[in-house]
UniProtKB/TrEMBL annotation:
Ribosomal protein as UniProt keyword: no
Pfam families, per the entry: ABC_tran (PF00005)
Protein name, as recorded: NitT/TauT family transport system ATP-binding protein
Domain (ABC transporter): residue spans on this chain: 2-229
InterPro entries linked to this entry: AAA+_ATPase, ABC_SmlMolc_Importer, ABC_transporter-like_ATP-bd, ABC_transporter-like_CS, P-loop_NTPase
Keywords assigned: ATP-binding, Nucleotide-binding, Transport
Tree of life domain: Bacteria
Molecular function terms from GO: ATP binding; ATP hydrolysis activity
Upper taxonomic lineage: Bacteria, Bacillati, Bacillota, Clostridia, Eubacteriales
CDD domains assigned to the protein according to its UniProt record, in alphabetical order: ABC_NrtD_SsuB_transporters
Length: 242
């Protein structure tokens, strides 16, 4: 479980987070949504220990977070792929750095590339891939390390509408097959409602509302009118003057 207590983060005189409190149960998903500059990325980075809070703390499974955890996977907006390595080697590299031997790494790389439907691109370089393919490689590279907590910053923001849905489906299916704790930062209301069991709505430097998502994981969600009504409820909270 993730437990965030009275978190405060400033960049110089800019207050990015103030008195933020949040609990996310183990192996559940949570989407963080809010306008640009409200502190979403700062909150995600605090959970990943990529930045240290000025005040307050983050506990993961009861342990106070003081350093980057081995079992936390992070997928950032720009994918972070190594342009001089092939798809195969981008994923393998992460495993070799983690201490897997070559045979173990190769076995895992093949499994994950097949699972994500990118095995056929294994010899290509990131520069030869579409945005959606790059994102799948980035997801594969992180998932190969079998994290128990996955943090994603705008996983589909750079993608067109169809590819966005495809990536969201892949993420949801991966979660359904093997639940881990999944935290997604997004600007996109549909993405939040699709990927978040819990929807955290932020406004300038704080959380203004938390919603449980009764539609999470349901079949044919995008054909369900109630799903879009739920999206409208989220929208009201984002646009409400508080
Ligand atoms: N390195 C930094 N130095 C100074 N100010 C920063 C830095 N990073 C973020 N900020 C400021 O902190 C506030 C929160 O930024 P953050 O990136 O967390 O917001 P966000 O909600 O993720 O924004 P976006 O949706 O545009 O990515 C903003 O006002 C931003 O300008």
């Amino acid at each position: 479980m993730i437990s965030i207590k009275d978190l405060h983060v400033s960049y110089g005189s800019e207050i990015a987070l103030q008195n933020v409190n949040l609990h996310v149960e183990k192996n559940t998903t949570c989407a963080i949504i809010g306008p640009s500059g409200c502190g979403k990325t700062t909150l995600l980075y605090s959970i990943g220990a990529l930045i240290k809070p000025n005040e307050g703390k983050v506990l993961i499974d009861g342990q106070e977070l003081t350093n980057v955890r081995k079992n936390t996977g992070v997928i950032l907006q720009d994918y972070g792929l190594l342009p001089w390595k092939t798809v195969w080697n981008n994923v393998a590299f992460a495993l070799l750095c983690r201490g897997f031997n070559k045979d173990e790494a190769n076995e895992k790389v093949e499994d994950i590339l097949r699972e994500l439907g990118i095995y056929e691109y294994r010899s290509k370089y990131p520069g030869e891939l579409s945005g959606g393919q790059k994102q799948r490689v980035a997801i594969g590279r992180t998932l190969a390390l079998e994290p128990d907590l996955l943090l994603m910053d705008e996983p589909s923001s750079a993608l067109d509408a169809m590819t966005k849905e495809h990536i969201q489906n892949i993420i949801l299916n991966i979660y359904k097959r093997k639940p881990i704790t999944l935290i997604t930062v997004t600007h996109n209301i549909e993405e939040a409602a699709f990927l978040g069991q819990k929807i955290v709505i932020m406004k300038k430097a704080g959380i203004v509302h938390i919603m449980d998502n009764p539609y999470f994981g349901k079949d044919k969600l995008r054909e369900n009118i109630d799903f879009y009504k739920f999206c409208l409820e989220i929208r009201k909270w984002i646009h409400e003057d508080i």
